[in-house]
Design brief:
The chain is mainly alpha-helical and 141 residues long. The chain is 52% helix and 6% strand. Strands 1-2 form a two-stranded parallel ribbon. Strand 1, helix 2 and strand 2 form a beta-alpha-beta unit. Helix 1 packs parallel to helix 2 and helix 4 packs across helix 8. It is elongated, with a radius of gyration of 18 Å.
Length: 141
């Protein structure tokens, strides 16, 4: 678990928040859950603007509704690993279960390069992925 401020620091450093979006679908945005989150998001946006010497284009507004992305957007990096994806879909045939699975999320992070193989534990023992699927997650092949 990380703090909200640490999450925002990661968010700001992961892209150029000063570049305007070329469409609403790809805009940079922070949707806040309460007044404190709104305050911290605006405060960190001001800090980023000062650091970069440019206005922040990221939208910051209260969350009104949440819509799950289409299935083909879910666990995008993992879906580029066909064998592992097929095995996970056999374990979690329902899309909601697939999306909410901690194991699938960790495997997606590994496939995206956000985790190393040691930090996700032994998925084979935890949920029954084959060695071939694990190798595909580790190497991309």
């Amino acid at each position: 678990m990380i703090s909200y401020r640490d999450l925002l620091d990661h968010f700001w450093s992961g892209h150029n928040p000063c570049r305007p979006a070329w469409s609403r679908q790809y805009m940079s945005a922070i949707f806040t859950g309460d007044d404190e989150q709104q305050r911290v998001a605006e405060e960190t946006a001001r800090d980023v603007a000062l650091e970069r010497g440019a206005d922040v284009a990221t939208l910051i507004e209260p969350l009104r509704a949440f819509y799950l992305a289409e299935a083909y957007h879910q666990k995008y990096s993992l879906r580029r690993r066909a064998k592992a994806t097929a095995e996970f879909e056999a374990i979690y045939p329902d899309l909601d279960d697939f999306v909410r699975s901690t194991a699938v999320t960790r495997a997606n992070a590994l496939a995206a390069g956000a985790l190393d193989a040691e930090s996700i534990g032994d998925l084979a023992d935890e949920i029954g992925l084959s060695e071939g699927a694990l190798e595909e997650l580790r190497t991309g092949r």
